[in-house]
Design goal:
Elements: H1 5-10, E1 22-28, H2 32-43, E2 50-55
Parallel strand pairs: 1-2
Length: about 55
């Protein structure tokens, strides 16, 4: 559940995906929780070059 990402990140030691260049997230929704989760992920991916979001119908 993508909506739990912010909660999971708060409960962990700080870390980054320093080498992650590309990320594809499938079956996303346009909910506030999903948008917040993507925001949290982007903050820990300093080198991201591409992000693909595929939304659920």
């Amino acid at each position: 559940d993508v909506g739990r990402i912010p909660e999971l990140l708060q409960n962990q030691q700080p870390f980054q995906f320093s080498n992650l260049l590309h990320l594809k997230l499938q079956k996303m929704s346009l909910s506030a929780h999903s948008v917040h989760a993507v925001d949290c992920l982007l903050k820990i991916m300093p080198s991201i070059e591409s992000l693909i979001l595929e939304f659920a119908p």
